């Protein structure tokens, strides 16, 4: 019996792609959206949109109330102590840039920023460029064979000069959960600030900020089945208080004169200009949708899909997985076959997977690969999507091998 997602019909995009003959297996890049998101976007514009935090008129007041309610929803979703700890950004990437500029004033030449070998460029380049600007050392934690950050080596590398640790919770290339709790503990004993890239992790299960206890947590709405254009930066109050304002403009000031201005604290002080109001409201609708799913049923279903993916790979020769994926996404290469040739033949058969370096060029270089193919799953994927993928893979490999 093939696995059938009880939630597939909630996602018009996946049905539309299916009708077009497309099998969508690229949810780690961006996920399809539930009908609730489409309804929210339409309602916001159809019922009369308005800017937030500016006007006292009815539409403005209504939009502001709904916008701030979404901030509360995000904080409830993350079990953050208060909504004031949630900054809306334009995505995970802009949250990392905010952090790298906002924290820059804390570091002195020779200080060490610690990341890992598998970071997405979004959690690598802002720190790399900060290190170059301020003459800091960027320390890179190596991985073990399974694709997890090696804790023994981390214990050696996280040292007295470590001022910040920024690591991914779930790799977008290897699909394996990282030992975040242990790494955060090591960093905290050194008094370092801690940043967790939750861009992939937030999509699977619930993550409690009070238990995770990092200083900052970052994610993008569009991978969590929400709209694009909005991301979240969660921070502990003491960590948020360390951030220097970095983008300047409307609604982030308390008072402004020609020569001087005084800025709002977080969150508003870090949301200069008109925020992505429609996207924030639709993110709220996404969380409403996700909150009414049975978390155990979702987890069991994601595991079952993952098992099917792993068994399919295990049943085929010449395939090498990158590390040991344990949820929802896996990257692979095939002996003697270039990933772009394989990707081309999969594309021709209507299989939408991602091929290339997955915004993790240094990792690929370290693995000695020019690229890999990534299959990633959403809660709307059926077993038949994977059957189609493997059948297309077999046909492609009959030609290429
Ligand atoms: N971190 C990880 C682990 C990711 O997978 C991504 C997106 N691929 C990002 C950060 C950046 O997210 P965005 O492009 O939405 O800013």
What does this protein structure show overall?
There is one protein chain. The protein is α/β, with parallel strands linked by helices. It has two domains: about 10-30 and about 295-400, Aspartate Aminotransferase, domain 1, CATH 3.90.1150; about 40-290, Type I PLP-dependent aspartate aminotransferase-like (Major domain) (Aspartate Aminotransferase, domain 2). It is about 40% helix and about 15% strand. The protein is built from 14 helices and 15 strands. It has helices at about 10-20, 35-45, 60-75, 90-100, 125-135, 150-155, 180-190, 210, 235-240, 275-290, 295-315, 340-350, 360-365, 385-400; strands spanning about 25, 85-90, 110-115, 135-140, 160-170, 195, 215-220, 230-235, 255, 260-265, 320, 330-335, 350, 355, 370-375. A seven-stranded mixed beta sheet has the order 2-8-7-6-5-3-4. Helix 2 runs antiparallel to helix 10 (about 275-290) and helix 12 packs across helix 14 (about 385-400). The two termini are about 30 Å apart. The protein binds 4'-deoxy-4'-aminopyridoxal-5'-phosphate. 4'-deoxy-4'-aminopyridoxal-5'-phosphate binds next to helix 4. 4'-deoxy-4'-aminopyridoxal-5'-phosphate binds near residues 120 and 197.
What's the architecture of the largest domain in CATH terms? 3-Layer(aba) Sandwich
Using the alpha-carbon principal axes, give the shape. globular
Structure summary, number of beta strands: 15
Strand content: 15-25%
Helix content: 25-40%
Give the distinct bound molecules.
Answer: 4'-deoxy-4'-aminopyridoxal-5'-phosphate
Count of runs of 4 or more consecutive helical residues: 14
